[in-house]
Amino acid sequence: LEAGSECGVRPDPAFELEEKTMRLFHLSDLHLGKRLHEYSLLEDQRDILDQILLAVERERPDAMLLAGDLYDKTAPSAESVQLLDDFLSGLSAQNCPVLAIYGNHDSPERTAYGARLFREKQIHVSPVFDGHIRTVTFSDEFGELDFYLLPFLKPSTVRSCFPDAEIENYSDALKFVLEQALRGTDPARRKVLLAHQFVTGAARSDSEETVVGGLDNVDAAVFEGFDYVALGHIHKPQNIGSERLRYSGSPLKYSFSEAEQEKGISLVTLGEKRAGSLAELSVHLLPLTPRRELRCLRGSYEELTARSFYENLSREDYYRITLTDESDVPAAMQRLRTVYHNLMELAYDNRRTKNSAELELRRAADARTPEELFADFFRAQNGREMNELEQELLTQALLRQEVEA
User: Fold this and answer.
1) In 3D, which of 160, 163, 223, 237 has the Cα closest to residue 194?
2) 313: number of Cβ within 10 Å
3) Which of 83, 146, 348, 391 has its CA 20 to 30 A from that of 380?
């Protein structure tokens, strides 16, 4: 592939695979070093990465796609760095190529460090963005397949590389970069994109960073032209529109809002691409079993501490407990931890807390403008922000209401 005139592609040398259909493991959001309610999850993360290495040994994928947020902090701990090193070394020992990008939690410079040396071990990492998208090309019985390594981007990052481009939001930034990267490429070639962004319509979890007002939204239409888009950033495994645009989700649960989610590895199989169509595709979830589950319990103190209630539960799991007692239980946290050893969070749900919550909601609503309240309602109903026309219609309706009043 040749670089575009403005924002193009820098190809790495093609890596030849044995003749067969392409099978890929898609993962994201490892968040190595993350703490949950001050509990270190490093032990849990090491266990889940060991499970993934066993799955690699069993399934023999042609490549591992890591779609960002390898670390939880831009300056990760020494233990987190060692854990990622062990994981990548394990993949390399099994001759499993790796394609990785940095996410919004990662340091671009830290993630890209040593990239040329890594390539000798078939570990391909996105460089610090300079206006170009790094590509890696593999081959199978159906021909060549190009992987585009697009790291997490903000509009300001793209504007700094292309000051003359008209870029107002995240969608503009991604659209501009991808259009330039695909310019002049062969539409008959299969293309896979790794990206780390929030696509409009995706269901978020509490553990993800959000931008007020949904300003970080990216329209799914900007990803047209790719046979598969391996997304990171959202922790719930999900498709956006179709399985061609997919979040693998995090391999572990990182908030109690994720307690009911099934985590796993997305196994992606890419086949032949016929003229005028996208490549044949199938996606399957390979479940992962955490060392400790995240569980939510609800009931009175007496109910939850009865042996008949907890005797069949794992007392080492991570718990969030909601007590329904009308009166606060003295030293409830300490006493409950004698049964539930890793109790992380304790809350009450009774008449007192309900009255307090209702009062706070009324205060919050009273302080907001009608435009803000309707925007929240629209977002909840449609999974996106209002466009300019809809905002104008709302403004006109509110003005008519004021005149009639």
Assistant:
1) 223
2) 15
3) 348
Q: Which of 103, 67, 46 is nearest to 266 (CA)?
A: 67
Q: What is the pLDDT of residues 70-102, one digit of tens each?
A: 999 999 999 999 999 999 999 999 999 999 999
Is the four-CA dihedral 117, 121, 122, 123 of positive or negative sign? Answer: negative
Give me the pLDDT at residue 8, please. 52
- Indicate the DSSP class of residue 214: G
* pLDDT tens string 247-281: 999 999 999 999 999 999 999 999 999 888 899 99
pTM beyond 0.85, yes or no: no
Q: Give the span between the Cα atoms of 322 and 301, in whole angstroms.
A: 9
Within a 10 A sphere around the Cβ of 117, how many other Cβ atoms? 9
234 alpha carbon, distance to own chain's centre = 3
Nearest Cα residue to 115 out of 132, 105, 101: 101
Q: Is 114 left (phi over 0), alpha (psi -120 to 50) or beta?
A: left
Is there a contact between 206 and 255 (Cβ–Cβ < 8 Å)? yes
DSSP 262: P
Q: What is the pLDDT of residue 404?
A: 58
Two structure tokens written together for 381: 């109903």
